[in-house]
């Protein structure tokens, strides 16, 4: 006679064994009555729950005979369930089912005893076994969560790597969807230095800040750089604040944000511009943090980025040329004279107000004010890139 069944007759243990089906069915019936979500489960899932309950009762009987087998039996009960059972039923729902099952045990099992003394032994055994079942269920869900977390981390790394490399849209979308990313959400890629060499620390810094903004995020550490894909708009002043807050999750050094694109399928464009900006930002020591890749077009062009050269031509040089020679000539003269309005007007043989008017029209066309030192640099480089491109026959 074992310690658990000490004071129990073989007849009582056999009675518990025979009642296993009845006990399991009673527990499932109460679950169906108390929990609305249980009644909505498909038949195959309800059958799986019944199977787990029956195995639990059988494990209780075996445990009465040998309590040293308790942990193995209860663990095997959950291991023997369908592998995706934890996807159907949350941990909270599992706790509710365990509670109901134990209540049924406490009500019905003692009545199977031969006398009052054995009833007391059975009541205590139910409580002790219940602790084992609760522990086993918690371990089962913890193991499932750990495995899912490891898988999600690998999948997330593949998605971020695919964005950086410009993988095919179909594979990228399917992997991102598996991580719960909305395919229609706007996306912005930020790159910079990781805040730590410890991956969990990096993960916590990025995810905690994104969670406080209620923004989905994907991240990956690639060598010495941290790549973050942030969901949602970032263009207006309010939404731009999300970039500022997210940049705080990076380590020391520059943080570059690529353009915001319509969906994650186009995120490779944002990543390419952001990485180009990160390589070139060293040429602008006072760059803000974060700095947009579009604000680094001169440095990117000087570093040899053909995409930056094309954008400077398309956004600055071409609009000035298409507007007529007077605007481009005025901008070039103004820059050449160091931004001295009167000197520029004398050189062009026009009134200073004419220069002001032309510079204002140029600013409307290009979004760059020649009187601003930073914009003046952009205009100078854009015009130089345009002349070089035309000389090479590319424009």
Automatic annotation (TrEMBL):
Keywords: DNA-binding
Domain called CdaR GGDEF-like: residue spans: 166-280
One Gene Ontology molecular-function label: DNA binding
PucR C-terminal helix-turn-helix domain sequence ranges: 327-384
Domain of life: Bacteria
Similarity comment: Belongs to the CdaR family.
Name the record gives this protein: DNA-binding PucR family transcriptional regulator
UniProt source species: Actinokineospora auranticolor
